[in-house]
């Protein structure tokens, strides 16, 4: 997996994202002030975005600095904490321990927090939860801690998978209950995960939600809840249109600053 990372400010980000998609990026994320785009091969890029770097997935210096800033994050019934702050979780809260590392999903991004909150509002007891773009595994693990019987996390970036597995172990989620695989929707999934899930959660970009909306409908049981985030408020119309196109109903939006979370109900047939 090749990663092209370049500085991303609020002003430049929208244009950068569009150029990276057009250049053939297969996935995009933001981390510590950088836009990171995944490519299968090193690609000639337009002049406007040649100020970035092609990289391996080597450990970066920013990680140590980032770790020092972390605080517990409360998200509904769950508090997301790094292991060394476990004692700070208030009584009555469910601790979700995430070792900060190379995978996105420490809980400090508004999108992760909103998604954990939204999962906590569902009755997940005994259900199967599919998490697309699992990163650290945080949303899949939240699903398991909230009572889901089975969770599957899929991510296009192979470095996330062992990290998510380890985070699930750190949270006492048994191996058979939480499975993590590299891939995306449209790929063959393990076990019976090609059958519809009860709940689907995805923290990706609006453009990806647009591309994957048909797969979301195919992977959810009729009437099943969909939780989507990673959506800039300026891109909400794209996601709304995609959900309408695929027959989702009961679309609701919540916002935190520039980020939005959308919930919807899968088509009945
Ligand atoms: C914003 S992070 C979300 C991480 C975590 N689920 C959370 O909520 O904090 C997005 C993740 O999606 C992955 N990703 C990007 N494009 C993808 C795709 N097409 N299919 C599956 N995963 C993808 C990235 O590798 C990254 O780990």
Automatic annotation (TrEMBL):
Catalytic activity: L-lysyl-[protein] + 3 S-adenosyl-L-methionine = N(6),N(6),N(6)-trimethyl-L-lysyl-[protein] + 3 S-adenosyl-L-homocysteine + 3 H(+)
Primary localization class, coarse: cytoplasm
InterPro entries reported in the protein's UniProt record: Ribosomal_L11_MeTrfase_PrmA, Ribosomal_PrmA_MeTrfase, SAM-dependent_MTases_sf
EC number(s) per entry: 2.1.1.-
Entry keywords, A to Z: Cytoplasm, Methyltransferase, Ribonucleoprotein, Ribosomal protein, S-adenosyl-L-methionine, Transferase
Binding residues for S-adenosyl-L-methionine: 112, 133, 155, 203
Subcellular locations according to the entry: Cytoplasm
Pfam families for the chain: PrmA (PF06325)
A single cellular component GO annotation: ribosome
GO MF terms, alphabetically ordered: methyltransferase activity
GO-annotated biological processes: methylation
Function description: Methylates ribosomal protein L11.
HAMAP family: Methyltr_PrmA (MF_00735)
Family, per entry: Belongs to the methyltransferase superfamily. PrmA family.
NCBIfam families: PRK00517.3-3 (NF001790)
Protein name as catalogued: Ribosomal protein L11 methyltransferase
Source organism per UniProt: Deinococcus hohokamensis
